[in-house]
Each structure stands twice: as C-alpha cells, then as structure tokens.
Amino acid sequence: MTQPDMSQILAQAQQMQAQLQAAQQEILASSVVGDAANGLVTVTMSGSGEVTAVNIDPKVVDPEDVETLQDLVQGAFLDAHKKVADLAQEKMGPLSQGFGGDMGSLF
C-alpha cells in the first residue's frame, strides 16, 4: 500500500479551510426574516444571530391582550433563529462532511 502524499493532503486541507471560511463569511453577510401570524410580526436576524429589526403590524397590538403579542414576537424570533441555523447547515453541511461532523450545531 502506498503512503499518502503529505503535500497533497496539506493542499486539500488548506482548500477545505478556505471553503469553510468563505461559507462562514457568506453566512455572516446574510440575513433572514422570521415571522409569526402570517407576517404580522417579523424579526430580521443577521447570520451571526443579531436581531436587526422587529416589525409589528398595528393590527396585532391589543392593550388588553399583551400575552398574544409577546407570543408572536417570541415565535418570530424562534423562526428567524431556526432559519439562521438552517442557513448554516446548508452552507457548512457539505463541507463539514469532510470532517465527519455536523457544523450546523455550531450556530
């Protein structure tokens, strides 16, 4: 059995590292919008998980029912967070298979 060429292995590792860095940058440059109540409440989140905007349609603002509004904001946030995780899995998943792991769990 022949020995693997170390320079070839190193070159492949460097190429994979560059691909991972590019995917990470793409994720960080992205933003997603999570929503609740068919878009009446939306949360915009960056790829790093930072909430950059919250929009609430006045139709869902009822001073007598603050709990529903709180639930909708929480639901929109969770939806946005899931979309960031899905984006990370989409971008990093194929690359992480080379490492035998699930990189999506990092986000």
Rg calc: 20 Å
Strand order of the largest sheet: 1-2-3
Order of helices and strands: HEEEH
Helix percent band: 40-55%
| CATH class identity | Alpha Beta
- Report the mean per-residue pLDDT as an integer: 87
- What's the β-strand tally? 3
Number of helices: 2
* Whole-number count of domains: 1
N/C terminus separation:
40 Å
- In terms of structural class, how would the helical and strand content be classed? alpha+beta
The profile of the biggest β sheet is: 3 strands, antiparallel
CATH topology type:
Ybab, Chain: A
CATH architecture: 2-Layer Sandwich
CATH superfamily: Nucleoid-associated protein YbaB-like domain
General shape:
rod-shaped
Low-pLDDT segments:
102-107
Report strand %: 15-25%
Pfam family, one: YbaB_DNA_bd
Keywords: Cytoplasm, DNA-binding
Subcellular location: Cytoplasm, Nucleoid
Function: Binds to DNA and alters its conformation. May be involved in regulation of gene expression, nucleoid organization and DNA protection.
Supply database-style keywords.
107 residues, alpha+beta, Ybab, Chain: A, three-stranded antiparallel sheet, 2 helices, 3 strands, 51% helix, disordered C terminus, cytoplasm, YbaB-like_sf, YbaB/EbfC, DNA binding, DNA-binding
Report on this structure.
It comes from Corynebacterium efficiens (strain DSM 44549 / YS-314 / AJ 12310 / JCM 11189 / NBRC 100395). Binds to DNA and alters its conformation. May be involved in regulation of gene expression, nucleoid organization and DNA protection. GO terms for molecular function: DNA binding. It is found in: Cytoplasm, Nucleoid. Keywords: Cytoplasm, DNA-binding. α1 runs antiparallel to α2. β2 (41-46) and β3 form a beta hairpin. Helix content is 51%, strand content 17%. The longest helix is centred in the last third of the chain and has 31 residues, at 66-96. Residues 102-107 have low confidence and may be disordered. The chain contains 2 helices and 3 strands. A 3-stranded antiparallel beta sheet has the order 1-2-3. It is α+β, with helices and mostly antiparallel strands and 107 residues long. It has one domain (6-96): Ybab, Chain: A (2-Layer Sandwich). The N and C termini lie far apart (40 Å). The protein is rod-shaped and about 75 Å long. The chain has helices at residues 6-29, 66-96, and strands at 31-36, 41-46, 51-56.
